[in-house]
C-alpha cells in the first residue's frame, strides 16, 4: 500500500463505539484498525478515493482503472483486518 499521502485519499475505520474515524495516512489507519482487531473483532479499513489521481497515487495504474470502473463508489477499496492469536512461540 502507498505510504505517501494524497489530497484525494482518506482512510476510514469505525472505532469501538461505531463512530467513523478518518485518517490521512495509511500507517495511522492501519495501526488503529490493527489495535481494534486485536481486541477480537474484525475491522473494516475503507480506502476513500475522491479522484482518479488519488486512486493512482494509492494503487498505481491499476487503481486508476479501478476508479474509472465506478467513480461514484462510496468506498474505493475495503480491507478486512483480522488478528488471529496463535499463542506463545518458543
Question: Which terms summarize this structure?
Answer:
90 residues; 4-stranded antiparallel β-sheet
Write a brief structural summary.
This protein has 90 residues and is an alpha+beta fold. It has helices at residues 26-37, 52-69; strands at 9-14, 20-23, 43-49, 77-81.
Task: Indicate the topology.
Layout: E1 9-14, E2 20-23, H1 26-37, E3 43-49, H2 52-69, E4 77-81
Antiparallel strand pairs: 1-2, 1-3, 3-4
- Strand order, sheet with most strands: 2-1-3-4
Cα(first) to Cα(last) distance is 32 Å
What amount of the residues lies in strands? Answer: 15-25%
Count helical runs.
2
Give the SSE string.
EEHEHE
What are the low-pLDDT stretches, counting only 5+ consecutive residues below 50?
none
Helix content: 25-40%
Rg over alpha carbons:
14 Å
* Overall pLDDT metric: 94
Tally of extended strands?
Answer: 4
Largest sheet: 4 strands, antiparallel
Total individual domains: 1
Amino acid at each position: 500500500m502507498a505510504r505517501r499521502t494524497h489530497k484525494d485519499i482518506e482512510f476510514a475505520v469505525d472505532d469501538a463505539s461505531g463512530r467513523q474515524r478518518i485518517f490521512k495516512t495509511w500507517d495511522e489507519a492501519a495501526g488503529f484498525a490493527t489495535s481494534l482487531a486485536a481486541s477480537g473483532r474484525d475491522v473494516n479499513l475503507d480506502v476513500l478515493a475522491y479522484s482518479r489521481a488519488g486512486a493512482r497515487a494509492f494503487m498505481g495504474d491499476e487503481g486508476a482503472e479501478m476508479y474509472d470502473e465506478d467513480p461514484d463508489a462510496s468506498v474505493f477499496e475495503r480491507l478486512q483486518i483480522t488478528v488471529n492469536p496463535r499463542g506463545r512461540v518458543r
